[in-house]
Every structure is written in structure tokens, then in C-alpha cells.
Amino acid sequence: MDLQTLSRLLKDLITVHDRVSLPGLGGFVTELAPSVFSDKAMVINPPFRRVLFKSSETWNDELLENLYADENDISVEEARKELALFLRDFKSELNKQKSVVIPGFGIMRATDQLDYFFVADKDLFIYPDSYGLEPLNVKILQKKGTVEVLSGKKTSLPPQPTVKPAYQSKPSSEKREQSVPVPKAQPVKREKPVNKGKKKKTNIWSVLFVFLLLIIIVVALMVVFKDEARPIWEWLLYSREERELLRQMGQGL
Q1: What is the pTM of this model?
Q2: pLDDT of 206
């Protein structure tokens, strides 16, 4: 194991995983960064993934050991031992020199309080979804735009051609008399008088019967679906504070 191998393994893993452990030190995590403007707002940078190092990520996902074992055709236990020896020397060098370069991946740094952080390489590419996206240059207009003011003058319209109405001939009185048949008088049927009092009574009894039937159906539904309809009745009958008080009393019971 060396720094070149560590760099290659980390780049392969961090491209497809959001977290990669560095046993004994912490772990690398990725975050999606949206498209942003440059400092002078002249360039729009495409979205990207940033790599951070967190010492609090102490649990080991063993991604590094498994990939190293597969590439070197050794067991995971042997890979774990080799990686532990290498990272022990790596940590010692980092604590002394305060920075260690991982070629093509970035720089690990340490503070005087032995807090570790990571600075990614400027050419590190770990976001395949942004492949082909390039920074967009923004051009500033040199001249201010002008608004055209309408003069409001009336424009003359071309004359429209006049259309003469079509000539219609009046039918003669003889033809009109022949074409219109004279209807025959028919006897008028007298309608039987309707007893309005009986009709009103039947309408009232029908309305009462339908109303009672609806009440019976509603009561039956309340009995059958009383648990399901309970939130609806509480919403209709109680305010928000009363519903919250009833819910707390129910939880206390």
C-alpha cells in the first residue's frame, strides 16, 4: 500500500459512494453543491459534489479493505492488516508535517489541536452526472436598453368594398295561398281539476319519509364506522385547542 494506491482506491470508491472510511482517522463524505455564481458574478459554475473529511465518522464501512483485497487477490483480513500499518504511518506523518498530499485526490491537513480536514484537488472529478457541463460566461450589456414610445397618431385604413344585398323575389299571393294549408279546428279537451290540497299533503309526507330515512342511515353509519368517523366529528365539534387537549388526555389514559 502506498499513496498512489490509496488515491486510486479513494477516487474509485467516492465516485459511487457518499461515504468512505479511513480507519483510525475518520471518513470522507460527499455533499451535492448547487450551481453558483463566481465571485464577480461573471461565471455560472455547474453543480458538483464536494468532498469533506470528518473525524467524527469513526465507524468503519470496510469499503477500502474490500476493494484492496479484491484487487490484490488477498483475504479481507490480510488487507485490513496492511491498511492498518499504512494508515498508522500516514497518521504519524500527518501529525508531524501537518499536511500529507494524496496525489490526484487532495491534501490532508492537521491543526495544532490535531483536528483533521481535507482540501480536494482542483481537478478531482467524482460527479458523473455533471459530465459535459461547463461554466457559463455571463455578458454584461454595455448600453442600456431603450423603450420605444408610441406616437399615438391615427393611421388611415383602406376603404372597405360595399356589398350589395342579394335580390329576393316576393312570392305571389296565389302561390302563398296554395302552399299554406288551413288547419282544421279541433275540439278542446278540458283538463280535470287537480285537488291541490291532496298533492301538498303527499309532498310533505314524501319529504318527511326521506328525511327520516337519511337520519336512520346516518345513525347506522356512525355506529358501524364510529372509530373511523371520530376525527371528523372532533374536527366539526371542537376547536384546535380542544382537540389537542382531548388527544393529550387520550394519551395519558
Answers
A1: 0.49
A2: 85
